[in-house]
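Predict the structure of non-specific serine/threonine protein kinase.
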Amino acid sequence: MATATANNYACSLLQVGTLELEEEADSDTWYKGLAVLSPDKVMVVDFSKSNLSLHIIPYGELLAVSDRLKYPQDICICNVHDNEIQIAVSLFNAKIEILSIKSTGQTSAITRGRTLDVTTGFDKCRGVKYLNEKLLISGQKRNSICWGIVSFKDGHVDVVHKICEWAGYSSSYLSINPRDDSMVYISCQADQYNTGIHVFRNSEREFLYQHDELKFPRGVTVDTQGFVFVCNEKPALIHQLTEKGQLMTIYREEIPSNLLAIFWENKQGHLYVTSSRSKVITIFRPTYSRQQDPDIPLEILRMDEASLQIYKEALLDGKEKTYDIRVMVVGHYGVGKTALTKRLLGEEVDIFERKSTEGIDVHVDCCRISLDTWEWSAQNKEADKYSRLQRLVTFLKHKSTLDISPEGHSEIIYQRETTPVINVRTNIEESVTDNEDVSTSSEPYTKQETKHRSGDNVLRQGIKRKYSSESVERDSMIELLQLVNENAAKLEKIRLEAALLTVWDFAGQYVFYTTHQTFLTSRAIYLLVTDLSQHLSDIVIDNECFFDIDGIKLCKVHEFVEVWLNSIHSIAPFPAVDIPPVILVGTHLDKIPQGSRQSVVDRSFQQIRSILKDQPSRFHLTNDDFAIDNTKRDPRLEDLKRKIIDLARKQPHWGQEVPTRWLLLEQAIMTLKASGTKVVDLSVVRELNQRGSVPIETEKELDLFLRFQHEKGIIIYFSAKRLNKKIVLDPEWLIDALKSLITAKAFIYKNNPAIIEKWEEFEKNGKLSPDLIDAVWTKETNVDFYENKEHILQLMTQLNIIVMPRSFNDSGDEVKMETFYIAPCMLRQATPKEVICPELSPHMGSTSVLCCMFTEKFLPSPIFHRLLAACMVRWPVAKKESEHLIFCGCSVFDLDRSHRLILHLKNHCIFVRIIRIGIRLTTPISKLCIEVREHIDKTLSHIIGYLASNLHFQWFLQCPRSEIECLESMIPALEIKENAELMCKFHGNHAIESYELCKFWYENEEVRAAIDPENPIPCYPLELEDKRPSDQQLSRLSLRIGREFHTLGLELGISGAEIQQIQIENPFVTTQCLMILLKWAHRNLSQATFRNLSMALWKVGADSEILKNLDEADNSMSCLSPQALDIRPTEQELKKISEHVGKELLHLAVELGIPLSRIEQIRLEHRQSVARQSLEILFAWRKRNAGQATFRTLERVFRRLHMDVNILNQVLPT
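Done. Here is the predicted structure for non-specific serine/threonine protein kinase.
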């Protein structure tokens, strides 16, 4: 049973049975269309046999068949009248056949009706579905994939909707949502931009679902709940989507291979699926149940099973709902983000101040929002103290069974053995007191305490406590309640039931974007701020960008809007949803004349939405836009606040339950952070935890708590041993450390002219020297950075913000570490053309150009920066003379002494090329190239998983005739591996040999895995593709095939009776195989080619690699004396040899060149004696070859057949 969890559902796909269909003829089946007429009848269309057949469930017995359908594609049920059912079958030649099935008793008959010609709208038909006297059809028209609506009555084409342009092979099937028939889902296989599930509503495309594991989408169906199921042929997977196209889960287990069609049967709630070359239909039952813990945070669900279990156990000890609102204010430079932030927080704004945010300004828990009145109010320490007090009371009530009434006589019995005794009064007082500075404690425990508290054991001993003095504990609880009662008025006044608001104000300068991506989260509401007084095509001045190899450029307003929206979309938890939501906010409303204000505002917001209309990021935009005047207290701010609250209440993390003791420690950490502490040792957090009233109990749980806080963006903490000794309480502090370096220009020029040159090198080439770091961080305002320099640099290295590169020494015989760091985000110098496209000399060889292209047509620059950093860790950076070859969007690496890797970025594409330099050897080594591709693939996947989990990439290879950056000439690697030859449309339709493009980057196994059955890649030289294999080659092949020969024979057209006769006449498997191959070759002279043989081998699951090297000679040293090699064997010597031939007789005859007719004659004449047959074969060989019939030839043949060559030595005269 396949199971998965998605969207608060536990989804399962249980296989409930299989149905093997009875067929008229025993041959391949391609059930492309499938429909269940009733719980006892199923109907399929078979593409390979061009027929439609009706079968009984559950036995598969054939009831009726209708043949001579021209390549049927799909089938649907149209009308049901008593005992008659009308059905429609789509044909490949743009025809729709209408048939009727009539049932009488136990018999059924299929009659042909009218044929609808839809060639006015389609050239080819694929899918067909019926809806209210209309047929919905998907297919192709000229060079486009499309779908349309035709009349069921006469086939009139009402309308055709274009999906995409595509002239090659395509597959497109469709389904209708039974809950909302305005929604149509079309599975489409085309190029990398359009392969997926296209979701249409009212004939308008709403969304395209794409996934790395949906490269071959086939059938699609929708169940009664609106869930969409899609088949992927290779690998065999079933994707389940919501009706909006959001991925719920992917089923992998117990899924049959090579999926084709899928059908949802309503009455029993079953899924039926078919596979190519299989007569078996597999039946599944989907089941859904709400998760037991729907409120577990996504950050925890993404962790391993052990972490999830620890979290669940912590919830059992007491939990509390949390209501946190995080607002991220983003936008380009100078649009008024900081002023807007201050207005939201009720702070005064100096309208004449022009100072911009540098880095990120974080306002943590700056507002409390009442869950009753939704009013915003400033946060205060009183609220923090008493909220902890209230939580502690709730926690202890949950944990205890104490009767605290004055007459009560019972004991506190804790529910878990690991719960410690708590001195209630003392710890309560400590928990609401802020005076003690725990950060001054360097020794968190005494040695005796550490013995019990550290390690994987519980920090406080797990012992079940029953108290000898009930009255003492009872009095303590009464004391606690008295303390609560004494402060009841304060608790009520503070309104403890409130949401806490945190606002992040992101700098608009591009140089800070590389750190911004680290802190983007789906747990937020984004305000995307634009300046209403600017036109979208205006250039944003004073904000230099450096995306790729072009270096510094100035961008337009709309480009920044797209960058921010795409960056937000890249971290979305699921595709096709509005999480996280983005509110468009326009500022500088005061600069627009009053008379045209509303029209300008409407036009500005409409233009933004128009630019984004074809991008998936548009789904994040909310329906309401806001125009704000930051120069005053604009009443529209209150509308914006209400919108923020409304969106926050709809977020999946709203009201999520978190362990109470985690909240207590989180609040304690926030208190410590509020005191100005930026970074602490792990021992301090341990001490803080121990001093709390209810501490986290184990080291593993404490580590999970810290990792959870890190994932939420509250702290920076890594579990790795070299990084877990310190915890950054304020993520903004780490950004400030980098900001202090980036913005130090004025300080350096004024106070430290000795290192001006090093600053300029940092600004130009991203080289960050230790001297520059020390000069900036010893500045009085940066002393915290200097004191924690080692940890900050380790964190920046861990986050791939900076990296210490390596390079070969001057002699080129060893790799050394450099003495400086590289900050990829600071690389501004454009890449010289000769670096990307070096002129190849006779002593240089190059691979084809490999390209990693992102499906979303967007790549956040931090992704490439981190990829460069990861590559610098693995490979030395190349040099030209003394200069490192590192530029904006490009770096060159020395893979070894002769291979160089050129890695560069242009737009949303990463280009990879390897050059080998040598005198005699210039062809790049394939194994090394494959290692590079795999490393880049793995590294990118890891970076994307951490920073932008909603991004997807695909590998392409470039036509050899193209300029290096020509994206139009890119061909998907998967498409190349599926075809032996391709046509390049960009360069006048010239042919490309796939092997030449793939040979450096992909192993044979990978290529073979993607072979299409209709067009396999040969595992032999292409010049042999249409050549006939010789009898000798077939002989050698037969020794490699094994017991698949029976199935292979059927595939090659040899009948079962013929194969049976061959088996009777030939007792040995290898001989049987050879006879089948020879019969096929001599019967089908024109069709007996390597191509067709390769296809047959692939179809029966044999390794077509066995076709390689059939003519390879055995170069082993001869065991015969040189004098004996050219001697012709005598008849007596041949007689002795014939006694040892045995089962290799037929192979020996073929290898010696005896015609098949003569072999069969000899076997017929001497059927009683194998030795006699062998002797006659040898005599025939000696007679036919005269001077060539030597011991040298016999030795070569014996070696090919793996026969004992020593036999020849034994027969030779001494």
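DSSP finds 38 helices and 54 strands in the chain.
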